[in-house]
Amino acid sequence: MLKERTTKQKMLILSTVCASKAHPTAEQVYDMLKNEMPGLSLGTVYRNLNRMAELGQIRRLSVTNSPDRFDGDLRPHHHICCSACGDFSDYFNVSDESAIDAQISIQTGFEIQRHETVFYGICPKCRACKQ
Amino acid sequence: MLKERTTKQKMLILSTVCASKAHPTAEQVYDMLKNEMPGLSLGTVYRNLNRMAELGQIRRLSVTNSPDRFDGDLRPHHHICCSACGDFSDYFNVSDESAIDAQISIQTGFEIQRHETVFYGICPKCRACKQ
DNA sequence: TCCTTATTGATAAATTTTACTATTAGCAAT
DNA sequence: ATTGCTAATAGTAAAATTTATCAATAAGGA
């Protein structure tokens, strides 16, 4: 009767994403794990990250000029990306995000599942480097 | 002394994106133009859309499960994407978006240039199709 | 332990985007 | 108009990212 099986690969991938604060790409997750599990396949990483995002276990982030990133932190928060160096940070201090979803649902008829916000700018370090 | 040249290709690409409310991908812009300008190259479309986005003439939208989209409407607004059919709509009713950028800039030291928000959900039409 | 089948590893292929280069064409100066 | 400089283009190849395919493996219920 059980459909979803627990595998060593799934457990490692999920724990890696949840332990990281770097919002890794699929390839970065793969790189972090291939020492610990030499036979691991990149396709397995992609397949599982996608499924976990669909199941709501992790968040999938689509970012300009970057492969998709994954975030194991499910608390409501935003992200800030430096256009110069690619630094990708969290921004908390978020107030009442679910209210926005509810408001938009009422106004548009969409059943809103989630939303993602990315701020783009220049990080303090790159600002210091002038130009 | 002039660097940026005005070409027929640039004018057509920009006017196409600005005239469309469909948030077209690069390939869709190319398809819309290849009748009018048979020799047009897809690479030219990509190159110019990227440059125009960098110059702030248009917005570049990174969306999960979709190639990047482009938006000629520079007024502050959000976007809603249907996870089922891919429908991609505008959402206006946005209050005080620049204040958020300013607040985050103060708190993080980033020089915020812009932000993009995409809401994901199920559109009214797909909700009606049950399941 | 056996059986069913979800999952994996390996690879190929699809998709999306960028890079390269000879040629074309915008435009400033003649 | 004509010339000269070079940004921009068309055409193509290639890079980068992601998904599909499939035989072999292994999870877990009977």
Query: What CATH architecture of the largest domain in chain A would you give?
Result: Orthogonal Bundle
Q: What is the radius of gyration of chain A?
A: 17 Å
* Overall residue-averaged pLDDT value of chain A: 94
**Strand element count of chain A:** 5
Lateral strand order in the biggest sheet of chain A: 4-3-5
Described by the principal axes of the CA atoms, the overall outline of chain A is flat
Count of individual helical segments of chain A: 5
Number of domains of chain A: 2
Please give the largest β-sheet of chain A. Answer: 3 strands, mixed
Can you identify the CATH class of the largest domain in chain A?
Mainly Alpha
Low-confidence stretches of chain A: none
Oligomeric state? homodimer
CATH superfamily of the largest domain in chain A, please?
A: Winged helix-like DNA-binding domain superfamily/Winged helix DNA-binding domain
Task: Specify the helix fraction band of chain A.
Answer: 25-40%
Structural class of chain A: alpha+beta
The CATH topology of the largest domain in chain A is: Arc Repressor Mutant, subunit A
Distance between the ends of chain A: 61 Å
The H/E string of chain A reads HHHEEEEHEH
Biggest interface, chains and residue tallies: A-B, 34 and 34 residues
Q: Estimate what percentage of residues of chain A fall within beta strands.
A: 15-25%
Description:
2 copies of one chain form a homodimer. The first copy, chain A, has 5 helices and 5 strands. Chain A folds into 2 domains: 1-74, Arc Repressor Mutant, subunit A (Orthogonal Bundle); 75-131, Ferric-uptake regulator, C-terminal dimerisarion domain (Dna Ligase, domain 1, 2-Layer Sandwich), CATH 3.30.1490.190. Chain A is flat. Chain A is of the alpha+beta class. Chain A starts with 7 loop residues before the first helix and ends with a helix. Chain A has a 3-stranded mixed beta sheet. Chain A has a two-stranded antiparallel sheet with strand order 1-2. The longest helix of chain A has 14 residues, at 42-55. In chain A, a hairpin with a 5-residue loop joins strand 3 and strand 4 (88-91). The mean pLDDT of chain A is 94. Chain A has helices at residues 8-19, 26-33, 42-55, 97-108, 124-128, and strands spanning 59-61, 69-71, 78-82, 88-91, 111-122. In chain A, helix 1 (8-19) packs across helix 3 (42-55). Chain A binds chain B through residues 60, 62-64, 68, 78, 80, 82-83, 89, 91, 93, 101, 104-105, 107-124, 127, and chain B through 60, 62-64, 68, 78, 80, 82-83, 89, 91, 93, 101, 104-105, 107-124, 127. Strand 5 (111-122) of chain A pairs antiparallel with strand 5 (111-122) of chain B, so a sheet runs across the interface.
